[in-house]
Every structure is written in C-alpha cells, then in structure tokens.
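Researcher: Hi, I'm a grad student and pretty new to this. My advisor asked me to get structures for two proteins we've been looking at. I'm not sure of the right format, so I'll just paste the first sequence and hope you can take it from there.
Model: That works fine. Here's the first sequence with its structure tokens right after it:
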Amino acid sequence: MGTNEPSRSEEPSPGASDVGDRREVPAAFAGFSPDEAPAGVGFIHGKVRDIFVLDRDLVISASDRISAFDRNLGLIPRKGEILTQLSAFWFGELADICPNHLVSLVGPRAMHVRRCSVIPVEVVVRGYLTGSAWRDYQNGQPVSGIALPAGMRANQQFATPLITPSTKEAVGAHDRPISATEVVESGIVDAARWTQIEQTALALFARGTEICARGGLMLVDTKYEFGLRDGELTLVDEVHTPDSSRFWFADDYAARFAAGEPQRALDKEHLRAWLLERGYQGEGDPPAIPDYLFAEVAERYQFAFETITGIEFSPDETNREAQRQKTLFYVAELHRAQSGGISD
C-alpha cells in the first residue's frame, strides 16, 4: 500500500501460536520475462504480477516477488498462489456489490480476466488511524486533504472509514497521496463517477470487515483499483490480500489500544518494519534480507489465507516449469482464438 508502513515498535510479531508451525516450502516462482510472451501478445512486467495483454482480455500471473516501498525485495515461496486464490475468493464474495474482471483461474497463480480501462487512482479505505495517516496526523498535516479532529491516538478507529486516494504511478516510482477534490479537478474522473467509486469502495470495505471478523481479524485498511468495461464500474487487480491490506487480530485490539501498545498484525508489515528498523524507506539499495524473514512472511501469508477463507491452503504440487508452460500454452491458445475470431 505504498508508503503506509509503521515503525518497528508499531508492528509486533504475532508469535508462533498465531502462525502455526513452520512448513517446508518449495523453490519460489520468479515470474516470466518479456521474451516468453507468444508472438503477437503484449507483456507488462509489474512489481509482483506479469500481465499478458491480448485483444480483449488479459492473463495475469502472480509471481512470488514481494515488494515494499515500491521496490522488489525478493521471493516468498507460494505467495503468488495465495494471492491469486485469495483474490478469487474475494471476487466471489463481493460480486453482488461490484462486478469484477475475473473470467477464470488458469492455474494456481494465474487469472484470465477481461480488459478494462483502468482508472489511475488507488482507492485507499482506512478504518483506523495508523501507518502514513498517523505520521501525517502527528506532523499536523491533513490526510489526503482530510482534516482530522484533535486528540486522536495511534490505531484509533475512525467514526466512519476514510477514503484517502493515491496516484497510481509507473513501476519504480512512488505513489503519492491525492485528495478527492484533486481527483475530480484533474479530470481523472467526473464528480458523479467519483461518488460512485467512493460508495462502492465503502460497501466493499464493509463486506470485507464483516467476513474478516468471522476469523477473528480486523480489516484495518486496504486499497481498491477500479476500471471501466463498457461504461460499467469494475473491480480489478487484487482484493483484501496481505499485499494490499492491513489486518490486525481482534481478540486483544481493545486492550492493546487502551494500554497504548502496538497491535498484532497479519500482513507484510513485518517485512516493512524490519526494513525501517535498518533505516530503509525505499531509497537506494535495500539491506540484505535473511532467509528466515522470508520464511516468516510466507507463514503469515498462508495463515492469512486460511483465517480469512476458512479453507486450508492446498499448495499446487506441480513443478514450477510445468506451471510456467501451462500458463504460456493457455495464453497462446487464447490469443489464437481471439485473433482468429473464435469465441472464447
């Protein structure tokens, strides 16, 4: 979620009882390279996802790359599988609120989706005063143009969730906060569409909060991305994953807040906090990250999937090369069907 990272003291470890026993994991999947795209198929190499661009659709493959501060930092085994399957779960749970771009799962880490005209704004919804919002508040600054009342505390719940948009910048550039007024005045969308986006985002956040609560988690904040398909607002990208959201454990939130203690988190803030402790905030080369930290993050992603969905994560046992070839074959066949006018 851009630069919404807490300090180390804001992000305690959940502990072994929260994430379970260490699991042996296979080699990670680094993703595709542009020269692997079939002839006539476009290719976009994102921070985490590799996108094959066809005439009417996309095939999006989630690698095991992990990023923080808008920088790729390494590989987390099975992360791409978890992100893909968790987003597929959420697309199903949220479909009555907003249509989404998902057509089908191609494999454990790849999705076939409809092409949309993506609105270049990340719609961040915040339920609590934490991360970059808390730092701005401490410095006496508004949060994405919103002036907050005096006397608030770190990790305090807002009376109603806030929408704090940010720009969606190119890979390698930092997203920046932008106010709702700026979104409209800059012509990104008109006022009526932005109102629709805000209402939709708040409804998605409310549903996500409800579902996370069943597993004892709090959806703290998250980001949504939207596009237009035939003029219809459409949910795209990923939804309510550890890459795009903050989650806290609900059982001791009130006690920790009352005591002024940091909350137990279940997301990639663990990695961000480790980097912040070493003075890294996205500028220059990151410090070498030890393998044990990547293993801990992998455990957290799996635990998040199982806690949110109520489903035991079943990793795909196909070797990485077979996964790669399956996705490439699907892309080639889909391109052939679409370029030849064959209905898919």
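Researcher: Oh nice, that was easy. Here's the second one.
Model: And its structure:
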Amino acid sequence: MSPSVARGFGPAETILLLALSAMWGLSFLFIELALRELGPLWIVAGRTATGGAVLVVLCLLRGRRMPATVRLWGHLLVLGTINNAVPWTAVAWAQQSLPSGLTALLMAIVPTSTLLVSAAIGLERITGVRLVGLLLALGGVGAIVAGDLEQPGRVVAVLAVVAATLLYASGAVYAKTFVSGALKPLPLAAGQVVSAAVVVTPIAVLFESLPPNPAALATTTVVAVSLLGALGTGLAFLVFYMLIERVGATNATMTTYLIPLVAIVAGFVVLDERLGLSALIGGTLIVAGIYLAQRGTRAGASPVPEPGVDAPADPAAEAARTPGHDGDAHDQAEHDQDEHDEETTPCRGT
C-alpha cells in the first residue's frame, strides 16, 4: 500500500476503527458479566485458550508460520506472562471492586505508562509537552483514587490496574529488545496468547480449584467468556493490524480514546453503572494527558534510536510523534515506520 493510501480514513477504515474499539471496549463488560460466576484466573484462562485458538486458526488461514525455535517460544512465554496473563488477571481482579467503565478509563493510561518506562531506560525523550501530559494523566488517576479513599479495597483495585499498564509498558520494552523483526504480527500475537494460556491455566487450577463445568454455567457467562476470547483476544488483533496497514500506526491509536467511551456506555446500558464526579474529572484529565503525551514531540524531531519493536498493542512510540512536514520524503519515512510497527507490535488488548 502506498504512503498516500495509508494516511486517511475512508468508510472501510472507519468501520475497522469502530469495530476494533467495540471489541476492546466491550471486553470490560464481558469481564464484568463473567465475574458473576467465575474467578479472575479462570476468566483469563478461558479468554486466552479461546483467543489463542482463534489466532492460530487465523495464522493457518493466512499462511503465517508459527514460531519454530525454542528461543522464540521462550521469549513469547515471557511476553505472554508480563503482557497478557498477569495484567489481564490484575484487571479482572480489580473489576471485582471497580465498575467496568472506570476500569477502562484507567487502562487508557497505557500510552503514558509506555512513554514513562521507555523514557526511564533511554528509549524515549520526555519533552515539556509530554511531561505535562504525563502529569495530567497521573493527576487523573489521583482524582479517581481521591474519590475512593474511604473504600481501601477500591483504591487497591485502582493501583492494580495502574500496575497492569506498567506491565504492558514493560512488555513493549522486552519486545523491543528480544523479538524485534523475528515474527509477523499474527504469529507473534498467537504465540503470546497461547503462552499466556499455558501459564495461567495451571495457576487457576491451583488457586481457584478445578475448572467449572460449562454446562453448569449461565448462558450469559459462557457467551461473555467466549466473546472475550474470540473477539477481544483473537479477532481484534487481526483487525488492529489491518487498520495499521490501511491508516498507519498513529491513526490506529485513535482507539485509545474510543475504547473507554464504548466501555462506559456499555456499562451504563447493560449494568446500570454510574460514574461519580471524581471519576469523570479523573477521566477527563487522563484523556487530555494521553493526547499531550502522544502528540508532544516536535514535528520532525528524531526519536531516540530504538533496538526493536515500537510499542505494545497501542504503538505509543510511534503515536507519540506528531505528524510533521508535508512532502514525499516525510510521507515515505512515516510509511516505513508504520510498516515496522505493524510487523513488530506485540499483543496486548484490554
């Protein structure tokens, strides 16, 4: 696809963007519904088993080879643990205390967490505008926590979600260092999710007893876990990579702003969730902070040299750069960067 084609949104690209935002935004609703009968570990085991199977099938259908070396599978096991199994379990655990919409708002700070971790190890520079963005996002989290100080359990849940975003950021850095260029996107996502299932399932057996009998579960629970795996953990990644191919990594990160909106509306309509004033203020600060953190690099500024992958499922390193000058050379460079992002982005999800 030519650089000019990979820049804008037509009807097809808009549908892909909305579909992706819906699949990842509704994941928080599916988790909330599944928690009525299942523990967090079994929810993650179910979503990774289902999502992994979907991704493997997609690899076969699209002629993508799965990893073939023990070394690669070792790295995918690490990524599946820190980028999927642990953060997804933390999010599901936190949703036992937090509304699904509020959890989605907190998860929106992933780009700022990625920037923070990347800056701490020298992969990114924090400009003045980016610093303001980081402070706004942290202030938003603080506002949410301040509204729950009388409920220590909710405060701990908020901190668990923030910790999950930092794990995503760490996964991005790990992928930059060890997996860059070694795999195409779908095999990378499939290997990660399958590895996460291998990690979390025995832990679920150990800490949440034997697997529940699906026949004894409510239809709502079975459907929620199935959709969480098939859509939010499986098909969504194919849509995400298709979107990057068509509009570029920077434009694809518009999902960052749409996912919380989908989750809040779904929580309100289906679960009758209401967000308090502190959550609304905090959410506003978080969204403003994300925008500044992603757009806060001078046009044309050179990023810090990176050893590999540019970001987790929301490519923060690419998204943090403001599109710069017009001109064929700049467009080609941006197109090349987007192709690199599409080929090396590890699987995160929500």
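Researcher: Is there anything I should tell my advisor about the second?
Model: You could mention this: Residues 19-344 form one domain.
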